[in-house]
Amino acid sequence: RPAGWAGRIWSPAIRQECLATRDAAGLFDQTSFSKLEISGHQALMRLQRVCAGQLDRAPGSIVYTQLLNERGGIEADLTVTRLAEDRFRLVTGTAFGVHDAAWLRGHGLDVRDVTSAHACYCLWGPRALDILGTLSDDDLTFGYMQAREISVGNVPVLAQRVTFVGEFGWELYCPSEYGLTLWDTLMEAGTPYGMRPAGYRAIDSMRLEKGYRVWGMDITPETTPVEAGLGFAVAKDKDFLGRSALEAAARRTRRDQPGGQDGTDGTDAPADPPDRQQGADGPARRLACLVLDDPRQVCLAGEPVRLGGEPASRVTSGGYGHRVERSIAYAYLPAGTAPGDRAEVGVTGTWVGATVVAEPLYDPASDRIRHLPT
Question: What is the spatial distance between Cα 143 and Cα 297, in angstroms, rounded to a whole number?
């Protein structure tokens, strides 16, 4: 059990759910996640303007993207699935649907909130393919970040090959009236394989191990994709709201660096993967992963961080990673901070040593996500 406040909201079930998802499968109810649809002949054009990612892809494609403000700050963090040439579904956090819909409407988009129309269950884990294969005759081997309509038993389902826990599997959407039937069907088929129903606390633990960001904590309207390590999700081949601010920030950084040169357009800098954004092309701060020396000291967010004994930041989110057996925290640190550097985090009234580490901690090559289980 963690020390301090983290131990007050602890349950051994969280660990069991994480390990079951790693070793067999977990079934998660994400019906509460907000679902917004945008359609019409101008849907793509308007979404391209407000989304930093490239959405002009074939129907059935899923794009992870952010909505940026004019300063380049992150107003929303979501996935966009192209259901048809002129129809898109956006999935965002449970608490963010009203905010995100208002932001989109404020930029001229006609948004339908279809959250209550669809149940969503996430089947994730190395046995997910075996489990779903017993219930569907459809081809389930379609690729990562792709969506297909399939049948699961007698239930019509939109299966989206995407994850928020770092394991192979799908988000399974069905009409709400089929929700209970789909859950019972999946539970009956999955239990013999070692599958367990799992909850949001397990999701939060596993997403920290994979370095997946949460809006309102790790990313906000005051942080940019480049600072947050999300530059890979920013398109290089189109214009979008906030792009000018990202390019201007990149030019300022180059100009201010010793030997830096101005006059380049900065087009490529914001969109490069985080590990390629170094030196003069980077921002002044970056979101970094910390591992605490004492695994019983677990951060909840907001804890102060010191570098060299001086105040440097606060924890954006933290928790215990049961698959990697580490106490994990994230914080924005000076860009020059590197893996191996030492820090201190104020937890439960004491300063705990911590090490900056490369992320993600779990399955860094993402083989478990991108490839079919063997």
Answer: 39
At CA 222, angle to CA 210 and CA 301, rounded to 5? 50
Each residue's pLDDT tens digit, 78-125? 999 999 999 999 999 999 999 999 999 999 999 999 999 999 999 999
- Neighbour-count burial of 128, counting CB atoms closer than 10 A to its CB (0-12 exposed, 13-18 middle, 19+ buried): buried
Indicate the angle between helix axes 12-23 and 200-210, nearest 10 degrees.
60
> What's the Cα-to-Cα distance from 70 to each of 128, 241, 247, 255, 273, rounded to whole Å?
41, 6, 12, 22, 22
Q: Count of CB atoms within 10 A of residue 130's CB? A: 17
Amino acid at 335: A
**For residue 254, what pLDDT is reported?**
60
Domains defined along the chain, listed by start: 4-8+284-357 (2.40.30.110), 25-194 (3.30.1360.120), 231-281 (no CATH)
Rounded Cα distance between 73 and 228, Å, is 10
> Shortest CA distance to 285 belongs to which of 251, 242, 331, 216?
331
Give this prediction's pTM.
0.91
Q: What one-letter code names the amino acid at 336?
A: G
Reported as type and span, the H/E element at residue 99 is: helix 97-106
The string of DSSP letters for 48-78 reads HHHBSS-----TTBEEEEEEE-TTS-EEEEE
Stated as kind and residue range, the H or E segment containing 205 is: helix 200-210
**CA-to-CA distance for 325 and 356, rounded, in angstroms?**
16
Residues annotated within the binding site for substrate are: 171
Inform me whether the pLDDT recorded for 267 exceeds 90. Answer: no
Please list the residues that pair with 74 across neighbouring strands.
68
8 Å CB contact between 170 and 159: yes
Quick one: CA dihedral 294, 295, 296, 298, positive or negative? positive
Distances (CA, A) of 169 to 26, 127, 262: 10, 9, 46
* Residue listed under structure tokens 């939060």: 204
CA dist., res. 225 & res. 240, Å (int): 13
Cα(52)–Cα(242) distance, integer angstroms = 8
Residue set of the binding site:
171
Residue type (1 letter), 344:
E
